[in-house]
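Thread: quick sanity check before group meeting

JM: Hey all, I'm pulling together slides for Thursday and realized we never actually wrote out the predicted structure for the chain we discussed last week. Dropping the sequence here so it's in one place. If anyone has concerns about the input, flag it before I start.
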Amino acid sequence: MAKKKSASPWLALNLATNLGVSMAASVLIGYYIGHYLDTRILHDQTPWMTLVFLLIGVAAGFRAVLRLIDQSVDKNDDKNDKGDEDKK
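JM (edit): ok, ran it. Output follows.
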């Protein structure tokens, strides 16, 4: 029985780090854009722009995370397909 190669722990750590950084960066950028607009346009009366851009940042973060996961799965599928062709 052939032993299956498992993904490198470094690749898993790379994916986990990218997911966390992408999500955090998107949320923080959305928050700071909204906060800046609140202070410049609304003169810090209400936090509406902060809330709106924070939600946009969260949505962008989830989109980035899903895109990274999809790319990772596609790479693994391509590697598995190559391995199957070599065995034939």
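AS: nice. The mean pLDDT is 84. Residues 2 and 75 are 22 Å apart (CA to CA).
JM: adding both to the slides.
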